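Anyone up for a design puzzle?
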């Protein structure tokens, strides 16, 4: 294991009590996975100023100019009751939305399952990976310009600084994010899921709407989303039949148009 350039100690309960900061890393998720082999490392956060082999979902690469982003991975050993991809993704996504509201005063939304958006632009991606520990990887665009995204072939991406028209301190943003992650993790381990679930549902913004739900086995269901909960999604088809899906079964969930109250 290569050693960190800096170690920060934060007064947190679970997440980021210790932060290992690297000027450069291949992938913070790899560093976190290596640490996760030892259960005593649960909660450690790995932060990098740049990555040479950042990973995104579905084997894609995750690119960000040096110093432009929060590139963060957290080693997790969650208690069995909360050890579910859907819950951990919601925890990360809601915490990122809270950070965005706190930092730039904007209401972000969650795009199923792993993206955080505002102004219809993706500002953050989440990658949850499981090995001997669970690793939650977060790539948050902070200071990229329109030109940066164009050069990277990402015309639909956005960054926090674009909204406020000034650069932001990425380490400050990372600290605020770690505080939100810690606060919400503490609620989860205490079994308080209701606030997280309702923030997740609200920020998804699709309950009560006509949706397409594509499952990982390739089936596409169309219906009105009657319920959107950690315990399951309920779709009502046009013939009034009901489809029940666990969040973990659903690869994509897209809103078609408003057909009733949320
Ligand atoms: C996505 O494809 O939307 C998920 C992107 C996740 C990127 C982050 S950056 C920090 C961490 N380290 C990685 O290699 N990937 C994640």
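Challenge accepted. My sequence:
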């Amino acid at each position: 294991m290569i050693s960190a350039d800096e170690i920060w100690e934060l007064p947190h309960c679970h997440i980021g009590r210790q932060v290992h900061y690297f000027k450069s890393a291949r992938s913070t998720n790899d560093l976190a996975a290596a640490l996760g082999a030892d259960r005593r490392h649960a909660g450690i956060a790995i932060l990098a100023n740049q990555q040479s082999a950042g990973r995104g979902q579905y084997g894609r690469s995750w690119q960000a100019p040096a110093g432009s982003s929060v590139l963060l991975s957290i080693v997790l050993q969650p208690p069995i009751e909360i050890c579910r991809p859907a819950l951990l993704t919601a925890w990360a996504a809601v915490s990122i939305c809270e950070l965005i509201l706190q930092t730039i005063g904007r209401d972000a939304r969650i795009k199923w399952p792993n993206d955080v958006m505002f102004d219809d632009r993706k500002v953050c991606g989440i990658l949850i990976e499981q090995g001997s520990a669970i690793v939650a990887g977060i790539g948050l665009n902070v200071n990229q310009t329109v030109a940066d995204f164009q050069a990277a072939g990402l015309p639909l991406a956005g960054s926090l600084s674009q909204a406020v028209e000034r650069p932001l301190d990425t380490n400050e943003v990372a600290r605020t994010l770690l505080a939100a992650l810690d606060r919400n993790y503490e609620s989860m381990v205490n079994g308080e899921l209701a606030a997280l679930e309702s923030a997740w549902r609200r920020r998804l913004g699709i309950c009560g709407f006509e949706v397409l739900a594509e499952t990982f086995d390739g089936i596409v269901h169309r219906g009105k989303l009657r319920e959107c909960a950690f315990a399951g999604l309920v779709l009502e088809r046009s013939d009034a039949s009901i489809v029940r899906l666990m969040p973990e079964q659903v690869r994509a969930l897209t809103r078609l148009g408003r057909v009733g109250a949320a």
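A detail worth pointing out: The radius of gyration is 18 Å.
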